[in-house]
Amino acid sequence: MVKVGIDKIGFFTSPYFIDMTELANRRHEEPGKFLIGLGQKQQAVIPPTQDVVTLAANAANKILTKADKDKIDTVIFGTETGIDNSKSAAIYVQALLGISKHARSFEIKQACYGGTAGLQMAVEHIRLHPDSQVLVLAADIARYGLQTPGEATQGGGAVAMLVAAEPRILEIEDKRSFYSDNIMDFWRPLYRRDAVVDGHYSNNVYIDFFKQTWQTYQRDYHCNIDDFQAMAFHLPYTKMGLKALRSIVNQSHHPERLLAQFESSRVYNACVGNLYTGSLYLSLISLLANSETLQHGDLVGLFSYGSGAQGEFYSGRISEQFDRRPLKTDMEAMLSKRQKLTISQYEEMYQAGLPLSGGDKQFDTASDHSPFILEGRHEDQRIYRQN
Ligand code: HMG
């Protein structure tokens, strides 16, 4: 069977962040609760000049050549921060980046699972059409509201993945297990910008779905935990993945190996926060860029979870051609260039987006130097600009 998987991967987040110790102090919490209890050091703050379209366009812009743009025949956008109830965010990104107009473009949604659904659809498409390429975008802005328990688990950003035959990063295996149920752990009614969440219940459901999919995967493919050199998780906050891993790690003869790989897989998520659909893929980037022991051919398990709820466990092998150095250089350059906001500046920026009630709006774009920005809204149309 032809090898199919992630050939290129790119990440983009806001140029602004807050420090979690400063947020804890302002909210009269022990900093240890956010830093250790949740495993978060910093949080991306998304300015009004960025939405999921610009975040995704900025992520994809980093990885696509002109030849890629001509060859892509499908653009799949996974998001739960859609900007329109009808038109997909994929069409905007396709146009902003100059991707072939002969591609089909659409958006899919199932909370944080949308990126994985898109990736698996892309893999199946390439297995049938190995000469084509698919662009998968996973972009979100995680919002719970100021001074809520969820506030410490906000964030945002986008991951862009080019899926192709003979991939140079991760070969995705044709092995996966699913578990889904109608659960009200987290959702966002159409009239709200901030999610509704039953936080502790959502943690329990996440662990339950992880165990369900892990057991089914083991049973169906006759494998055990020591076949895996690492596991990457959807990370709504980084301690969540650690809790899931701890729930099975004693099945391993080398628990310390998986726990050490987990530390590599959460480095960037701890500095960005939750980006919903993109969180598992930011964790994968973090693992790939920071692990000094992962080798070509090693097997990585991936757990995707989207509230509501859908779980999937699947696996991939590190490609022969993979080189972690350019990925690490790019990630560190981007994260270190960000500007730290005070908590008051963050609170002001948090309230500044496009009102749900409609109306024209022009943003001050002077301080956002990202390649693609949102200038505002005019006659119900979002106005995008390339810097
Ligand atoms: P909370 O109730 O304020 O926090 O909110 P807590 O009291 O549970 O404390 C958190 C942890 O800090 C605990 O650790 C404390 O012990 C520890 P745990 O017992 O859980 O291991 N702690 C300390 N540690 C060190 N030093 C200290 C200290 N004090 C306390 N001084 C909660 C936490 C996660 C519930 C909240 O932030 C929330 O509701 N977040 C949003 C929901 C969420 O992220 N759920 C995750 C699973 S659902 C999911 O992943 C899907 C999602 O991404 C959405 C989608 O699919 O679209 C969210």
Automatic annotation (TrEMBL):
Gene3D superfamilies: 3.40.47.10. Residues 3-165 form the Hydroxymethylglutaryl-coenzyme A synthase N-terminal domain. The keyword Transferase applies. The keyword Transmembrane does not apply. It comes from the Bacteria. GO terms for molecular function: hydroxymethylglutaryl-CoA synthase activity. Keywords: Acyltransferase, Transferase. Residues 176-248, 263-350 form the Hydroxymethylglutaryl-coenzyme A synthase C-terminal domain. InterPro entries: HMG_CoA_synt_C_dom, HMG_CoA_synth_N, HMG_CoA_synthase_prok, Thiolase-like. Pfam families: HMG_CoA_synt_C, HMG_CoA_synt_N. Belongs to the thiolase-like superfamily. HMG-CoA synthase family. This is Hydroxymethylglutaryl-CoA synthase.
